[in-house]
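Exercise: predict the structure of this protein bound to threonylcarbamoyladenylate.
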Amino acid sequence: MISANNREPVSFLKTLILDANDNKNIKICADHMKTGGVVAFSTETVYGLGANALDAEAVSGIFDVKGRPADNPLIVHVASIDDVKPLVTDIPDIFKTLTEKFWPGPLTLIMRKSAAVPDIVTAGLDSVAVRMPEHPAALALIQEFGGPIAAPSANPSGKPSPTKAQHVKNDLNGKIPYILDGGDCKVGIESTVLDITGKVPRILRPGSVTYDELKNILGNIDIVNTKTGNELNDKIIEKPMSPGMKYRHYAPKVPLTAVFGPPEKTAEFIIAKVNDETGALMFDDHAIDHKNIITIGNSDDHEVLALNLFEALRKVDKSDITAIYAQVPNETGIGYAVADRIRKAAGDRIVVINMHESI
Ligand code: TXA
Ligand code: MG
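Solution:
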């Protein structure tokens, strides 16, 4: 994996988890970022790994800690609408409508970048991703820091995103000094990424702000097909729309097969596969009791599935299971984003079972 530069990563004796409810701790983290450092912090979606968005050297620290490829751009986090203006060359008309409805919250907007944003943040693209998180700890940190914070999810590149402070500690102990702990993330999957640079807004990454919610407000929107194409095979494509899409994501070390279809059918298929070495992620309302079956919520409770998915993928990695099958929810509402993350964890290991198929 190429990192943004060839520097030796900075190391710390150990990483401290600091309670975000104590203002002193917000200040400790903000002060560390003011010196060009990197800290992890809670947002409502997943934990982020933040540094001064306007300092290229500080941002290169994020790429070092994550082992993130230099061609995958970061999201810039702001605490107010006024913070957006210096980051972009123009504010599209729909910005107001979208931010009134969804900010602060799990919606990232792609706009044309201004010269104030260093190229390393946007991986050389002429657009920048901006989001105002809803989590009070994230907002307090940005305010105390006094400027925009660039932050990807706080996982090592390719691993599931962290939804608890302890996940970050497990992954990055010694690589950063502090994790600002604002509790468990309440969404559990990353923000919806919406490109508003063109005539028709395009969803580049589905999330908990859904296609239907955006369509209701905007009328005409596109959604980039995340089901097919290069993102599944690590193929290098020239400047893809959302560079992150070409990498495999969220993948546990154990090979995962995503099983699409009606839940009764996928449950039947998966239960027949489970044994001492083979495990499954299943819906509570379709699982059987087995030591290798991890349940992630009821089949139609998509918010709960989103909340539990990444932690379940982490559990798989800690177990001695050698293969795992996952039930994929029906792709409506947030189910679409959950299915997207399971599909990405599976790479090309996909099984589709039709309604009338006998297994
Ligand atoms: O919920 C979230 O969005 C979390 C929290 C920490 O805010 N952040 C997060 O960041 O998920 P990250 O870096 O893991 O994912 C950012 C995604 C990547 O797929 C990246 O390629 C895409 O946004 N992205 C960033 N800037 C972009 C740009 N200018 N054009 C297109 N895609 C962009
Ligand atoms: Mg990420």
